[in-house]
Design a protein that fits this description.
Structural class: alpha+beta
Helix content: 10-25%
Order of helices and strands: HEEEEEEEHH
Distance between the termini: 18 Å
Strand content: 15-25%
Strand order of the largest sheet: 1-2-3-6-7
Bound molecules: zinc ion
Radius of gyration: 17 Å
Shape: globular
Number of helices: 3
Largest sheet: 5 strands, antiparallel
Length: 195
Amino acid sequence: MSDKSTSSKAPAATATETPQVSSPPRKIYPIVKYGDPILEKPGALVQKFDAELEELAEDMFASMYAAQGVGLAAPQIGKGMRFAVVDVTGGKNPEAKIVLANPEVTHAEGEVREEEGCLSVPGFRGYVVRPQFVTVKAQNVKGEPFEIRGENLLARAFCHEIDHLNGILFLQHLGMLKRDMIKRKIKKLKKQGEW
Ligand SMILES: [Zn+2]
């Protein structure tokens, strides 16, 4: 999910900086845009919880922060798996980093209508009704099961990312007129080679 802010902060790392020993340089994945079929396919269950998955999680956080998002799902970096990362603080609080492997919403309550965007649909936003509270059952990066409750933006981020793992984009939750307008604009951008 994309952040609400439009801060034009430059990326933190520059070529002249020496990377810290404790945090190796991360792979920044390009983000797949709307139109790529991988975004509309359900992901496969994560079954292998190894060092590679831990690397992937950290690279996904780095890629998400670089794109100023608050959530990133594996299909958005071209990987068809049920794996996502969420951090609604945008990297400000390390405790807020959440890795979701094979997540499922087990309980939802209330409704909030709020504007939403997606890193795979850059430049477009729309109002989407989401639950105010959700409980999500998932596995962490080591494969250990856990349950987490989210409220408001966190609940929205969970629902948005879990949608991605089911091949669903926020566009599908918009009214037909708004959705068609966005799709038309994207088609035009594609024709101009700007998408
Ligand atoms: Zn998204």
